[in-house]
Write a structure and sequence with these properties.
The chain is an alpha+beta fold and about 190 residues long. The protein folds into two domains: about 100 residues, no CATH class; about 50 residues, no CATH class. The two termini are about 25 Å apart. It comes from Actinoplanes sandaracinus. This is ABC transporter substrate-binding protein.
Length: about 190
């Protein structure tokens, strides 16, 4: 899988501890939730964000919301997504503590679902091994490595398979993603 095809699977990785700590710190002063107008539909995809925090009673509250990217940039050679985090804070008793709408910036990464390791197609084969005859029609072998936590061999083979792929730097990648965002906003 090329990096360009991988761009279609952008996963915005928020630093949950940082984001929820900011949200949790603002929870005490958050205004009570008021009925809001229905959100406008947008072609820009948003990523669900969930988490927990310690509420005023010492219980575990929850946060449920979404992150919608508005722009991408390169900072210190790393890709950074800036966007709007919106969501609702609910305390341990199930009551709404408040709502959050905040602009945040977080590191972004391109997710790669699988790595093509081998795609081999053999035509018809006829083997005569000292009286043992083996006839095979067409054989198609595909081996994909799946990276992820605990997938040691998948991680290793994906790293090896991608060694010769040109890695786009953060600056051009951010420019491409900003063009894609602009196109999505026009839909």
């Amino acid at each position: 899988m090329t990096h360009r095809r991988g761009l279609s699977m952008i996963v915005v990785t928020l630093l949950t501890a940082w984001g929820l700590a900011t949200v949790g710190a603002n929870a005490a002063g958050a205004a009570p939730a008021t009925p809001a107008a229905p959100p406008a539909t947008s072609a820009v995809p948003s990523t669900p964000v969930t988490g927990t925090f310690t509420d005023a009673a010492g219980g575990t509250g929850s946060f449920a919301g979404a992150f919608t990217p508005t722009s991408f940039s390169a900072q210190d050679g790393k890709l950074v997504a800036t966007g709007t985090l919106t969501g609702t804070l609910t305390d341990s008793a199930g009551g709404t503590v408040g709502t959050v709408t905040q602009t945040v910036s977080a590191p972004a990464a391109v997710a790669q679902a699988t790595c093509r390791v081998l795609d081999l197609t053999l035509g018809p084969l006829h083997l005569d091994l000292l009286g043992l005859v083996v006839d095979l029609n067409r054989v198609h072998v595909t081996i994909n490595a799946v990276p992820g936590p605990g997938n040691l061999l998948g991680n290793l083979l994906c790293a090896i398979a991608g060694l010769l792929d040109p890695l786009p730097s953060a600056g051009p990648l951010a420019a491409i993603l900003n063009v894609l965002l602009a196109l999505l906003r026009q839909l």
